[in-house]
Design the sequence.
């Protein structure tokens, strides 16, 4: 029983966090805004596909959401470190609410949609880094794992709520216009919750130079990169977060091909087949405190290994189904559910893959929270977003061509091997918990990095 007690404590802490008015306001703003963001993205994908009938054009839409972060992400971090982060949340949500209204009147041409989407994404660039960098300002250090677990739980839940439930229901009942109006309402509500915060500026006001917000940007980010590179645990955590973010984007692009080439189903059925991924992720986040009590880096390694195995199983789902058919009664459950055996096997693999993915973000994010100097959090977490989006550009651009040449199964095997390699590197580079021993940590000043 003693080994289980830390997870029970963390679970109690997670529930207790929402009783804090400031954290509840931050959490509610995050949940509403990210649900709206996901619902709008899904709605736009449906609109663009209906206009063009081309999956390539929908890929361009995804790129239009990513591209603004490359040139502007560094500026975002500096702005966050030199302004009130709560005010940034309010403005970001209100601008995206206005973007939804613009979409309402101008969504008949794909190129106009791309242009509006880039402006919409630019406003959203400020939101997640601001939320992540505010968490340590509101939450005591001993509750950071619980807070990050709840953040990632909400992130996953908002993806399910926006993509699987809200957007499809509204599109079927009220059309694209209704989806844009609903998105605007959610963003306004998110802004209202953010307005109840009163943190984010005081902790850095005395340390930041006076003058213009944009002064000294090259120096500021050179310092943030020095912090990350000089501390191998921070750099490892950053690499793990970048990989996790890139995997989500790649998987979103590969799912339609997997549905068509492997399952012989329409891409629209992906919501049903891969719904267990979200369920598995929610379950994984529920048990995350139990895993992290035994080591944050160890938890990430387990998650990476699980994802690698699941990717390999998805790649081999057809031969596995052929073997399964030889067993008596193997197709009865599929027949009862009125789905194919291939679909059933994919759903069975999707659940543990979601569970494994839930073990990635929160532990790595906590390592950065624990080690990032307070006055550099905005820059460091903006660097995380920019790096993830920049590194994902090349895979996003070439994955379609590579899949056409070698097939979806081989691409999934390649991805599985790469993720497995990252798991091996993480197990060798990161110590237990991704930190030094307690004595070494306490001997350093807050924000000081190890070499």
Sequence:
């Amino acid at each position: 029983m003693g080994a289980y007690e830390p997870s029970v404590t963390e679970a109690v802490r997670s529930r207790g966090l929402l009783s804090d008015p400031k954290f509840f306001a931050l959490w509610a703003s995050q949940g509403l805004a990210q649900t709206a963001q996901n619902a709008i993205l899904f709605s736009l994908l449906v609109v663009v596909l209906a206009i063009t009938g081309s999956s390539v054009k929908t890929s361009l839409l995804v790129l239009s959401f990513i591209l603004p972060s490359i040139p502007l992400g560094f500026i975002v971090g500096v702005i966050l470190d030199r302004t009130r982060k709560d005010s940034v949340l309010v403005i970001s949500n209100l601008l995206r609410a206005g973007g939804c209204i613009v979409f309402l009147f101008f969504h008949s041409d794909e190129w106009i949609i791309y242009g509006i989407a880039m402006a919409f994404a630019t406003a959203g660039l400020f939101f997640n880094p601001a939320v992540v960098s505010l968490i340590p300002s509101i939450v005591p250090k001993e509750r950071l794992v619980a807070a990050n677990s709840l953040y990632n739980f909400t992130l996953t839940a908002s993806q399910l709520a926006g993509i699987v439930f809200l957007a499809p229901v509204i599109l079927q009942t009220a059309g694209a216009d209704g989806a844009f109006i609903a998105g605007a309402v959610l963003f306004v509500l998110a802004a209202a919750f953010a307005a109840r915060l009163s943190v984010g500026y005081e902790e850095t006001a005395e340390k930041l130079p006076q003058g213009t917000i944009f002064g000294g940007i090259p120096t500021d980010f050179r310092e943030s990169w020095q912090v990350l590179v000089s501390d191998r645990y921070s750099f490892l955590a950053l690499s793990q977060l970048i990989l996790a973010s890139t995997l989500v984007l790649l998987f979103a692009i590969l799912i339609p091909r997997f549905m068509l080439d492997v399952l012989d189903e329409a891409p629209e059925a992906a919501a049903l087949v891969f719904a267990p991924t979200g369920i598995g992720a929610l379950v994984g986040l529920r048990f995350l405190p139990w895993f992290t009590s035994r080591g944050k880096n160890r938890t990430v390694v387990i998650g990476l290994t699980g994802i690698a195995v699941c990717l390999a199983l998805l790649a081999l789902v057809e031969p596995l189904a052929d073997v399964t058919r030889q067993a008596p009664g193997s197709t009865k459950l599929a027949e009862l559910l009125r789905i194919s055996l291939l679909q059933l096997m994919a759903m069975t693999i999707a659940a543990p893959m979601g569970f494994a993915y839930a073990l990635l973000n929160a532990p790595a994010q906590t390592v950065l929270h624990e080690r990032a100097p307070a006055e550099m959090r905005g820059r460091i977490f903006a660097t995380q977003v920019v790096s993830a989006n920049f590194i994902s550009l090349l895979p996003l651009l070439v994955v379609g061509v590579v899949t056409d040449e070698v097939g979806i199964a081989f691409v999934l095997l390649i991805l599985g091997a790469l993720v497995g390699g990252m798991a091996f590197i993480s197990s060798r580079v990161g110590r237990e918990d991704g930190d030094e021993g307690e004595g070494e940590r306490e001997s350093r000043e807050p924000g000081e990095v190890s070499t």
In short: The chain is about 80% helix and 0% strand. The chain has two domains: 1-198, 215-436. Confidence is low (pLDDT under 50) at residues 1-12, 200-215, 432-451. The two ends are 38 Å apart (CA to CA).
